[in-house]
Amino acid sequence: MHPKILDVIENDVCTACGACAAVCPVGAITIDKKAQIRDPNNLELYEKGAAPSVCEDCYACGNVCPVIHGYVEDELYNVKQFFGARSSIPGQDGGVTSAILKSLLDKGEIDCVVGITRNENWETELVLMTEPSQVDQTAGTKYTYDSVISALREPFKDYDRIAVVGVPCQAHGARLIFENINDKIAVIIGLFCMESFHHETMLNDIIPKVLGLDIEQVVKMDFAKGKFWAYTKDGEGHSVKIPTVAEYARNPCHNCCDYTAVHADISIGSVGAPDGWNSVLIRTDIGEKYFKKASKDLEIMENPEPGMDLIKKLLNMKHEKNEPHYLEACEKFSFEAGGIK
Fold first, then answer.
1. pLDDT tens across 285-316, in order?
2. How many domains does the chain have?
3. Per-position DSSP letters for 120-147, written without gaps between them
4. What is the DSSP code (8-state) at residue 38?
């Protein structure tokens, strides 16, 4: 296995974005809470027959790893447009992500997209969507982590125009795949993210112990106004201050220096826009093209409040908190990582 990937895994800074698993030609990497190297002595795991080692030293994994590639100090440098938007589709806030995906699938602009569904226990499942009607089942933010990019391994074989939706590390991995390995990614939609949580931590600790709630009664989770919120079926909102839950975040989140998904074509979040709206950052010509194709289904708000100032405040908070941790991790690597540029 490429030693760079080994360093990332062994130092517990793997984001589990899944990019390495998506592109490995022999399936030498699997994703759970982090990337894992398959046992070369277990012949059931081979996809290309028996060999002295599963890995073929192609270096694809190291070329698509966000941690190895590094971070951008000014993650707003490539923003071409900023505005608010909302749709009539039920969603986390303005439903913009779902509206874009439904429109692009309906118009035949993309072939598929991987999404995340959940049941009443907030147990999640990755699903491949090829029809607009399938998008509704993935609406709403889960705040627990699934390796969306790893699920692209099979779609890469069958489809030519794939949309990717993910948090910053996943958008980063998708960008590196597009630039280095596979150009079948048509558009990357990034979601603002301060941190995420393992499923069992959310289900067994945060909801029942920190908030004192029954997970089956929770219908929505959100980060807003300095607090983590869980809304229940009776319409009530229950909250704790963000630092109370921050300690439960996945360890790689404490090393991440990207809040707004700088490597996406379109970035979408709730911060910076009024309640019921999404903030939208158009970052690339591709993003502009695809957003225009879907914009007729959206209501647009120019200069939303509280606006970019609040987005900058939160991304600066994330950078100030996490940059030292990431740079400390880089010092442990046996190679020179991308660092913060």
1. 999 999 999 998 899 999 999 999 999 999 99
2. 3
3. TT--EEEEEE-SGGGGGGG-S---B---
4. P
Are residues 155 and 144 both part of a single domain? Answer: yes
161, part of any domain: yes
For residue 76, the model assigns a pLDDT of 98
Query: 247, 271, 305: which is the final residue of a domain?
Result: 247
Rounded CA-CA distance 147/32 in Å is 8
Peptide bond into 52 cis (omega under 30): no
Residues 157 and 16 in one domain: no
Residue 75 lies in a domain: no
Of the three residues 13, 40, 69, the one that is the final residue of a domain is: 69
Residue 216 has pLDDT above 60, yes or no: yes
Q: Name the residue range of residue 178's domain.
A: 81-197+248-322
Structure tokens that stand for 106 in this block: 């309906």
Extract the runs of DSSP E, i.e. beta strands, from 124-254.
124-129, 162-166, 185-191, 218-224, 227-232, 237-241
Q: How confident is the model at residue 182 (pLDDT cuts 50, 70, 90)?
A: very high
Q: Give the pLDDT confidence score for residue 51 in this predicted structure.
A: 38
Integer Cα distance of 243 and 296 in angstroms: 39
Determine the Cα–Cα distance for residues 104 and 109; give it in Å rounded to an integer: 5
- CA 174/CA 180 separation, integer angstroms: 10
DSSP string, 236-290: -EEEEEHHHHHTTS-GGGGG---SS-TTSSEEEESTTS-TT-EEEEE-SHHHHHH
Note whether residue 93 is domain-resident: yes
Q: 132 or 50: whose pLDDT is higher?
A: 132
